[in-house]
């Protein structure tokens, strides 16, 4: 979850590193640091506890510069978030420094071995062991690359590393075993980072290191090998994101900007994938044939956090449109329960970053058991897209806010497209139905824009309820995942305890929570003329009445023009009418905004909530 950035070239390195760390601060903000080698081959380090601004102040007071160096922003795993434990970490000689994302599982054993060779440690981190291990290897070789290669073979765990030495000018060594490492390719300059945004303003030509690979970066070249030294030919790609998409663009927070980018994210994810004339869905080319899709008799979905909620909504979509049974698992639980998988099972893995450690583990578990794997991901070239048999890319663009918004709606759209595709292949959906679905999907971005054009009501609710200590979110059917996601957004960024629950389970426990102080958010949308939707609506309406009978405060998310549930609700947020399977994409947007405005009023750090990081690349 930590962020790594490195640069070698002709520019002054400190501004490049600081700007890169600024774009990576969503990955960790317990501490930050940089290491650079100056023109006299002196290695200089500056570190600071807390946010990046503290590091910037330390550099202002004690300036340093050079033309190559590495930087790090930390999300603490081993060792408290202090300046002493901040990266970069150096060896005893002070000639080698390392930044690290991941966990070294055998660091205590290595530490004890190195102590017996007169190494002295000054931090609580596992990373410091890596620097000392490289130093130990350098006692027997004068090549930094060789020392790194020998060292990584002794490390157990997952790790992304960037390493420099004052003894090897204009050279950065990058290593990947688990967490992401992106290499940026420039003219007379090269970059290494944990994610794409730090590189975008300098170059759009990149490649991702694979597991078990080492890259040696100089000003003029990048050479890649595996851990045994065998040459590797990386797959270069060109990133099409506009660099300005990774900036705030006039919004107060990245999260707010990303909420307002949802019409574009949905439009871009749909574009070119469905015909309005025929309703036919066209997925990206993949190594899963139409025949295999027809033969699958079960779909499983594995994901974490917000992506898990998208997967839960996807279950309703796939089962309704394709009539295939679907199970949804937390990726962190998937491989620990000995899942039943075979060649007739399709596993869908969902990850915004494509680097979520638990989801990668679920993917690999499935492939070992002969299941086919389809990825839904926002980052082309990420580990999940490389290992899956096929990918549906979401075109949400870079998402910087830790609390996911536009990636979530794009994931639900991708799942909807897949459900339509599978339903068409299996002969469940007629041509007329397919055209109707295509038209509804085409109208969705405009409806989101309509929602976002007037958010005054949501801001008023935030003003009224930002002092609440608890919230309850309720929904039935496909609205239940939206209740879960609405609650997650609130707890993530405002630190208010919030719980999502199936509305039909109220009598089985949650009723005990309801009193005159508890805001209860109920998602109760309806699709006119859809009998199943009307029945679900009536049952959820009864739950609203039930909450009111116990003096609870009801905030209802309703379809425009709904008079019945409006009359029994204390507060109403209206969303445009939509089909049963698409209305959840509209319903989540006011809940994202409600969480955002409550968090702002509580003075919380919306983009960087405490104890959380954007991409969970370690277990």
Strand content: 15-25%
What's the pLDDT, averaged over the residues? 90
Full CATH superfamily name of the largest domain: Aminohydrolase, N-terminal nucleophile (Ntn) domain
Query: What is the number of strand segments?
Result: 24
Function: Catalyzes the first step in hexosamine metabolism, converting fructose-6P into glucosamine-6P using glutamine as a nitrogen source.
Subcellular location: Cytoplasm
GO molecular function: carbohydrate derivative binding; glutamine-fructose-6-phosphate transaminase (isomerizing) activity
Protein name: Glutamine--fructose-6-phosphate aminotransferase [isomerizing]
Question: Can you tell me about this structure?
Answer:
Keywords: Aminotransferase, Cytoplasm, Glutamine amidotransferase, Repeat, Transferase. Its EC number is 2.6.1.16. The protein is an alpha/beta fold and 619 residues long. It folds into three domains: 241 residues, Glutamine Phosphoribosylpyrophosphate, subunit 1, domain 1, CATH 3.60.20; 205 residues, Glucose-6-phosphate isomerase like protein, domain 1 (Rossmann fold); 157 residues, Glucose-6-phosphate isomerase like protein, domain 1 (Rossmann fold, 3-Layer(aba) Sandwich), CATH 3.40.50. 37% of the residues lie in helices and 22% in strands. β23, α19 and β24 form a beta-alpha-beta unit. α4 crosses α5, α8 runs antiparallel to α15 and α10 packs antiparallel against α17.
């Amino acid at each position: 979850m930590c962020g790594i950035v490195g640069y070698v070239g002709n520019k002054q390195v400190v501004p490049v590193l600081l700007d890169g760390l600024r774009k990576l601060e969503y990955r960790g903000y317990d501490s930050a640091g940089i290491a650079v080698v100056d023109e006299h081959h002196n290695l200089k380090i500056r570190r600071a506890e807390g946010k990046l601004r503290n590091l910037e102040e330390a550099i202002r007071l004690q300036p340093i510069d050079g033309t190559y160096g590495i930087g790090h922003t930390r999300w603490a795993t081993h060792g408290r978030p202090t300046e002493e434990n901040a990266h970069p970490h150096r060896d005893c000689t002070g000639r080698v420094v390392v930044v690290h994302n991941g966990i070294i599982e055998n660091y205590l054993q290595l530490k004890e071995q190195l102590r017996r060779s007169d190494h002295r440690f000054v931090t609580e981190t596992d990373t410091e062991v890596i620097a000392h291990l490289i130093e130990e290897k350098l006692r027997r070789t004068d090549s930094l690359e060789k020392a790194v290669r020998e060292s990584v073979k002794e490390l157990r765990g997952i790790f992304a590393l960037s390493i420099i030495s004052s003894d090897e000018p204009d050279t950065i060594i990058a290593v990947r075993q688990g967490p992401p490492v992106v290499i940026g390719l420039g003219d007379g300059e090269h970059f290494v980072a944990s994610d794409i945004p730090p590189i975008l303003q300098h170059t759009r030509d990149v490649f991702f290191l694979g597991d078990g690979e080492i890259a040696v970066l100089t000003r003029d070249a990048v050479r890649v090998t595996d851990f045994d030294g065998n040459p590797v030919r990386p797959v270069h790609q060109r990133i099409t994101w506009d660099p300005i998409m990774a900036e705030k663009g006039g919004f107060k927070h990245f999260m707010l900007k990303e909420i307002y980018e949802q019409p574009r994210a949905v439009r871009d994810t749909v574009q070119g994938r469905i015909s309005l004339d025929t309703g036919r869905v066209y997925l990206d080319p993949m190594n899963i044939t139409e025949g295999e899709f027809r033969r699958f008799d079960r779909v499983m979905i594995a994901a974490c956090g917000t992506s898990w909620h998208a997967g839960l909504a996807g279950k309703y979509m796939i089962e309704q449109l394709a009539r295939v049974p679907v199970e949804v698992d937390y990726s962190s639980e998937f491989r620990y329960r000995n899942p039943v998988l075979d060649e007739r099972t399709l596993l869908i893995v969902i990850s915004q970053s494509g680097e979520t450690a638990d989801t990668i583990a679920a993917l690999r578990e499935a492939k070992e058991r002969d299941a086919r794997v389809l990825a839904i991901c926002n980052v082309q070239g990420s580990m999940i897209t490389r290992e899956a048999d096929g990918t549906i890319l979401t075109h949400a663009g870079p998402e910087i806010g830790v609390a996911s918004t536009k990636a979530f709606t794009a994931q639900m759209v991708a799942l909807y497209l897949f459900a339509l595709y599978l339903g068409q292949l299996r002969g469940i959906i007629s041509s007329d139905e397919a055209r109707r679905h295509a038209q509804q999907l085409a109208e969705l971005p405009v409806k989101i824009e309509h929602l976002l054009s007037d958010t005054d009501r949501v801001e008023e609710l935030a003003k009224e309820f930002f002092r609440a200590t608890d919230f309850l979110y309720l929904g039935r059917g496909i609205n239940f995942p939206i209740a879960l996601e609405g609650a997650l957004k609130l707890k993530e960024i405002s630190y208010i305890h919030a719980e999502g629950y199936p509305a039909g389970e109220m009598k089985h426990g949650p009723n005990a929570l309801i009193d005159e102080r508890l805001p209860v958010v109920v998602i109760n949308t309806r699709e006119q003329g859809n009998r199943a939707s009307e029945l679900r609506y009536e049952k959820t309406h009864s739950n609203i009445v039930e909450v009111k009978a116990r003096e609870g405060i009801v905030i209802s998310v309703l379809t425009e023009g709904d008079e019945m549930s409006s009359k029994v609700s204390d507060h109403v947020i209206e969303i445009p009418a939509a089909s049963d399977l698409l209305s959840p994409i509209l319903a989540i947007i006011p809940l994202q905004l409600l969480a955002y405005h409550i968090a702002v009023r509580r003075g919380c750090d919306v983009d960087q909530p405490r104890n959380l990081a954007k991409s969970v690349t370690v277990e």
